[in-house]
Amino acid sequence: MHKVDDDELVSQVSTAVTDEMSELYRQHCGQALRYATSLTRCPDAAEDLVAEGFARMWSRMKSGTRPAIFIAYLTITIRNLHLDQVRRRRPVDSLEEVSFRALADPALTVTDHAGACVERALLERAWADLTETHQQALTLTLVEGYDNTTVARRLGISLDAVSSLTWRARRALRMAYTIQASS
């Protein structure tokens, strides 16, 4: 099968020829997926980024934007999408980062990453089961790293209440995680 040049495909996509976009997807999906996986460390999240990246490219090209080098433009789009997601993260994402610092280790295998994705999903569901007060207490102490005095002032409670609250919040998170893992 003859491989069509990216420039030719891009110019045809911008004139509403959908088969050429399919060909660009076929030619560059693997490389885009490897790049997105290096950013997210999670194959499922990487697939989402690649799909959104190609959708944005399709939209831009249909409106007349013609990238000089398709794969370069696509990887920049994927990187920007990833950065947008990182910027929009909620405190729960910061909490799970504390649990997943091992993901920064380049020696991890794909199996390790798959297990981390499962653990992340369990942690997200367990976090969602916590009360807002427990979430605030854990975020302030574990994620933000505030001492009990600062947490007491921010939450408007006594110093003794902070110790009790954080102990209960950790216990509730452990229990919710155990329940999620066993279901």
Walk me through the structure:
By secondary structure, this protein is mainly α. 78% of the residues lie in helices and 0% in strands. It is built from 9 helices and no strands. The protein has helices at 6-13, 18-40, 43-62, 70-87, 91-99, 110-129, 132-143, 148-155, 159-182. Helix 8 (148-155) crosses helix 9 (159-182). The termini are far apart. Mean pLDDT is 78; it is low at 91-96 and 98-104.
Brief characterization of the structure:
The chain is mainly alpha-helical. The protein has helices at about 5-15, 20-40, 45-60, 70-85, 90-100, 110-130, 130-145, 150-155, 160-180. The longest helix has 24 residues, at about 160-180.
List keywords for this structure.
single chain, 183 residues, mainly alpha, 9 helices, 78% helix, 0% strand, elongated
C-alpha Rg (nearest Å): 22 Å
| Average predicted local confidence, pLDDT | 78
What ranges have pLDDT less than 50 throughout 5 or more consecutive residues?
Answer: 91-96, 98-104
Number of helices: 9
Alpha-beta content class: mainly alpha
Q: Strand share of the residues?
A: under 5%
| Spatial shape | elongated
Please bin the fraction of helical residues.
over 70%
Write the layout of secondary structure elements.
Blueprint: H1 6-13, H2 18-40, H3 43-62, H4 70-87, H5 91-99, H6 110-129, H7 132-143, H8 148-155, H9 159-182
Helix pairs in contact: 1-2, 2-3, 2-4, 3-4, 5-7, 6-9, 7-9, 8-9
